[in-house]
Fold each of these.
Amino acid sequence: MPSEPGISRIPKAELHVHIEGTLEPEMVFDLAARNQVPLAYDSVDELRARYRFTDLQSFLDIYYANMAVLRTERDFADLASAYLTRAAAQGVRHAEIFFDPQAHTRRGVPIATVINGLSAAVRDAAPETSAELILCFLRDESAESAMETLRAAEPHLDQIIGVGLDSAEVGYPPAGFTEVFRQAAKLGLRTVAHAGEEGPPEYVRQALDELGVHRIDHGIRALEDAELVRRLRIEQIPLTVCPLSNVRLGGFPDLAAHTLPRLLDEGLLVTINSDDPAYFGGYVGDNFAAIHEQLAIPEARLYELATNSIRASFLPHERQRRLL
Ligand code: ADE
Ligand code: ZN
């Protein structure tokens, strides 16, 4: 489903994309060859055929396995450059990019390799597309591991804009990470967290109250709690919604069943994002095209959603104004 040229012309920010989730099957094979990493698949087609997910965990298993091919600074730089090029072609003028350092340090790749590689790509991106990095803690690892990761990132604070929380959600409530988020905020970092993707509305509330986050990643299950919806509307807390991801991970049987129209009718500050585009069938422009075609979101609303993404970004107001 290619992003329509019209949609690609709308200036937008992408606020919810995991750089490891932009690792296309072709690049898995290229990097495996470059780094002599054995693969369990014989071809790109065979790998892609495994991308049939039933839930978040079934995706995460293959997402983490594929990362084995990412070893050097150059690998991380190539990965991020490829994403930035594709995103720019779909109208992304600014990206706030998640990365999962623990998924690399636990297999022996130093955090400096990850951050320096990604930063090099951000620095070398085309001048019309800016980018920032958000370090995510894996919530299915311990709070102590998250704190160690934050400490290891301290020499690189000028290379990251914030911290987030991702990975398997149910059974790993945000409140377990209160201390590390407090420490991150003290260091001047912005904060976001995945909540209400598969987990209950209570996790969204905890992300707001315990972690003090500026944005909620996903947040779709907030709709189950009218009081929480009221709060999200009144406080205009941005939700980074990922329509194709939600369908691919079994949240909805198809895109026509997605609750995006309800989120919009409730007056919430919604943005549209790709999450893990190499796995879920499209980049951010493809997500815009899909909601236009399959959810009948009118063009005027697409512009509003793009404007929301710029307003919900961590860009200084002056640059936001220039993009609007
Ligand atoms: N890591 C990468 N993609 C994710 C998602 N959709 N939810 C939680 N963690 C993730
Ligand atoms: Zn995500």
Note: Residues 31 and 69 are 6 Å apart (CA to CA).
Amino acid sequence: LSAGNGIDGTAMVIDRHGGPEELHAAKIKAPAPGPGQVRIKQTAIGVNYIDVYCRTGYFKLLEPPQAPGMEAAGEVIDIGPGVSHLREGQRVAYACPPVGAYTSHRTMGAALVIPLPDWIDDETAAAGLLKGMTAQFLLHQVHAVRPKQTVLIYAPAGGVGRMLCQWANRMGATVIGATSSEAKARIARAAGAHHVVTPGEKSLEEQVMDLTKGHGADVIYDAVGKDSFAHSIAALATPGHLVSFGQASGDIGSWNVSSLASKSVTLSRPNYGHYTDTPEKIAAISADLFDAIRSGTVKVEIGQKYKLSDAAEAHRALEARETTGSTILIPDQ
Ligand code: NDP
């Protein structure tokens, strides 16, 4: 938490790693920006599953007492020496470490903060930037999806998953979603999934093999982890590419690499930070995302909106699989 002369604000912080109940309100002061920094009055904050990993301590990105959060939008209040790409009064957004976004005002390094185009509102930016940039590098960089490839996407009604469905469909892929309920399956179909598999008498891999006439999925985007990893390998084509990019159900644990030979599996484990850690990468990837949003390829869906002070409830709902689309927090103005 920042100290010293500054602007009074409110944050949701944790004093120790643990459950959603650890999130509590705290008064903060956002100090005047130093060299290379900017001070932002935040209007909308994005909630991401990464915030859950940070809150529990699974990811070592948050050292209590501290606020979680990697993504927000708002207005620049003032800028420090050496910042030339931003100006006071400008609408901006960011989706990058360090954590600390669950706050009404924030002073932070300006390098990865980007100006927002006029046509995108703050809430859409906070809901879509991190998830959309993730979808961009997964579909265009980690695996360059080609027309007619079969793509299996888990959690297709969620934040990242829904955008993956929309974008992969527009890229000409055959999209299969894998979700937990018929209600979410309907959302996935509306987002562009040609087929959706849900838990039933047949296993996920049997359903995928039936749908693909025994071919399997050419690429699988799997952010469920522990519960899905083995099923994903079984549902792959030969050769196939398994992109394991998250673990909402728990850590995958160890895996025998030799077993991947059964299908000549390519395995990727991409990290958001490595695709978005320079101003040049952020500029390129966000420009691509903004084009996709503006053209209608990707529609950012805000499924849940909470007050910042209700961040614990937002986390509880996300972990309970009750959310669809993106979740944002709104600070008191
Ligand atoms: P989501 O909106 O996708 O929410 C998580 C979803 O995961 C749930 O709605 C649920 O969908 C599914 N799920 C399956 N099993 C479980 C479980 N046991 N507990 C909770 N959820 C489960 O979240 P986000 O869009 O914020 O993030 C999606 C994933 O992408 C996360 O795993 C995150 O870590 C990952 N990610 C990875 C990045 C990277 O760089 N590697 C960057 C950004 C995100 P359903 O009911 O349909 O199964």
Note: The chain has a mean pLDDT of 97.
